[in-house]
Design a protein that fits this description.
Layout (H helix, E strand, L loop, with lengths): L1 E3 L2 E2 L2 E2 L5 E3 L3 H4 L2 H8 L5 E7 L2 E7 L6 E7 L3 H10 L3 E3 L8 E5 L5 E9 L2 E8 L6 H17 L26 H12 L6 H4 L1 E12 L8 E12 L16 E12 L2 E8 L3
Antiparallel strand pairs: 1-4, 2-3, 5-6, 6-7, 7-11, 8-9, 9-10, 10-11, 12-13, 13-14, 14-15
Length: 272
């Protein structure tokens, strides 16, 4: 199992080692999650790729779920990316770890991010936002943090085989690749309600490249994206079948515009 020392900056805040394994569904059993949120969990689904390990806990059906898991990504970069996506960043004194809480425009909790190390964080998410109350969401984050700090998640002595590595995102020197990555992370987690994105059973950003760089301004940028997409078969019945996507790699362009000091993504297009 992977071992990580919990730190804040360069100063250790715990003497013992924090251990997180790749099998989140085993380390945070569905029975434990069910008792914590006071709802029955019908099934779980593991998701893993290089540097990301998640478990989804379904309540009643596939449209109601809680997700727990960690990413080997920079904590401060994640916080900045959420802010640039228009989320309000705050904290809650009840959570016994360095963290941030991201609030959506409706002032509901979007997700809660716990810092394990500067380059490793654990996320607590739920969909839809009203699946559990705000107090229940905070309580879940509190219990997760306590479980990690006490080592109660370390219930398996068997380390799973490392999943086959998948391509990491190839980010260029542009300043807004975090916005794009965070957006498609939200798509993968079912948090984007637009029909086209809801029809994506899975989507992974393979590559981000600068486009039309000579035309960039202080408030406009364009990127060419390579996306690995799996579409819901039912979307074949749309006026444009599968919304124009094919299963596998697709190339799309996206414009980012700066409005009131915030960068925002436009629609995906097939050409510049």
């Amino acid at each position: 199992m992977a071992g990580f020392l919990l730190t804040r900056g360069n100063n250790p805040i715990l003497k013992k080692e924090i251990k997180l394994g790749q099998d989140v569904c085993t380390e945070f059993p569905k029975e434990w999650v069910a008792s914590t949120i006071n709802k029955s969990i019908t099934k779980t689904k593991e998701f893993s790729m290089e540097g990301t390990y998640k478990c989804t806990y379904f309540v009643n059906d596939d449209n109601n779920f809680v997700t727990l898991g960690f990413d080997e990504l920079n904590f401060e970069t994640q916080k900045r990316g959420q802010s640039e996506l228009g989320k309000t960043i705050t904290t809650n004194d009840k959570i016994p770890m360095n963290h941030f809480v991201a609030l959506s425009s409706n002032n509901l909790i979007y997700d809660i991010i716990l810092e394990i190390t500067p380059d490793l964080f654990f996320s607590v998410d739920r969909y839809p936002q009203k699946l559990i109350s705000e107090d229940e969401m905070i309580n879940l984050a509190v219990k997760v943090a306590e479980r990690i700090k006490k080592g109660e998640n370390q219930i398996s002595t068997v380390t799973k085989a490392t999943p086959k590595a998948t391509p990491r995102v190839e980010a260029t020197s542009g300043t807004n690749t975090d916005i794009i990555n965070n957006f498609f992370k939200s798509v993968s987690e079912g948090k984007i309600d637009e029909p086209m994105y809801k029809a994506m059973k899975s989507v992974e950003v393979i590559k981000i490249e600068e486009s039309s760089k000579a035309d960039w301004t202080e408030s406009w940028q364009q990127y060419m994206l390579t996306l690995d997409v799996e579409m819901d078969p039912s979307s074949a019945n749309q006026p444009i079948p599968y919304y124009g996507f094919e299963n596998g790699e697709n190339v799309r362009f996206v414009n980012l515009t700066k409005e009131n000091g915030q960068w925002k993504m436009g629609d995906l297009t097939t050409g510049p």
